[in-house]
Amino acid sequence: MFKHKKRWIVSLVLMITLVGLAACGEDEQESKEVSSQGENAETEATAWDALKEKGTFTVATSGTLFPSSFHDGENNELTGYEVEVVKEIGKRLELPIEFVEMGVDGMLTAVKSGQVDAAANGLDITEKRLEDYNFSEPYKYSFGGIVVRASDDSVVESLEDLKGKKSAGGATTIYMQISEKFGAEPVVYDNATNDVFFRDVASGRTDVILNDFYISNTAVNKFKELGVKMSDIYYNPTSAGILLKKEDDSIKNKIDEVLEELHEDGTLTKLSEEFFAGEDVSKPIEGIDDLPVVELDQ
Crossing angle of helices 81-92/267-275, nearest 10°? Predict the structure, then answer.
């Protein structure tokens, strides 16, 4: 009798032990699964997720570049083609936009350091910049132009004539690089408005302004009385996009989706014609590839 009872007790102990071990195994497996899910969630977090969590899209722009980014109206409101494109992107992504105004020379650094999330100010998409930054798909196509004194038709008749001329602009722009490549003397401005540039050319303080043709031409027509005009020299086809930090493509992809919508529903064309005196800069220009291209190191 005692032998049977002893066997029964041993069996019961073994059964309890096995059940306990099985429970521990299940708990350990469940713990591993939860840990794995947490690691996967952390791994899959994107720059877009972080931006949405932050809740505001900060975008650098000049606020001084008519008609792309400038202050207008009774309330001195920030507006312009690129400003309104960014506002529309924010609206469709349900993401509030906060503009941070600064000179072009500081924008690239501000994006790289994380001071701002992006920059929109006629920033040309170049192979060199693509090594260090992300760009959205283009929302503006143009080419290089030159602003000269209206009273002097012989300031420049070719890019080679830039040698020795005083060229006004931002220190790190593509256009200042072109000026210096042809021997011009750089005269650097810190986020000045169009009229300041134009008055200095008219007065002889500087000689030329190399910049985007459509921006320059629209501004020259607005400020006709300041004594400047466009030269007949055109060069370097360009495309401009929103400049982003070199992270994953999640923010770029979201912006590109909206830009495609803005192309398809005609919003980009409408905004372009509003700010560029009827010109549609949102589409590639026919025959643009025939223009001369100035090769740059950066």
Answer: 150
State how many domains the chain has. Answer: 2
Provide DSSP, 17-31.
HHHHHHHHHHHHHHH
pTM above 0.85, yes or no: no
CATH number of the domain within which 259 lies = 3.40.190.10
The tokens describing 104, both together, are 């072009």
Does 193 have pLDDT greater than 50?
yes
34 within a domain of the structure (yes/no): no
- CB neighbours of 58 closer than 8 A, spacing ≥ 6? 97, 98, 99, 100, 115, 116, 117, 118
52/128 same-domain check: yes
Residue 50's CB is within 10 A of a number of other CB atoms, namely 13
Chain segment 29-81, per-residue pLDDT in tens: 544 454 444 444 456 789 999 999 999 999 999 999 999 999 997 789 999 99
Q: Which pLDDT score, from 0 to 100, does residue 21 have?
A: 41
Closest of 112, 139, 95 to residue 269, by C-alpha: 139
Which residue in this structure is represented by tokens 């000269």? 148
- DSSP secondary structure letters along 149-215: ETT-TTS-SSGGGGTT-EEEE-TTSHHHHHHHHTTPEEEE-SS--HHHHHHHHHHTS--EEEEEHHH
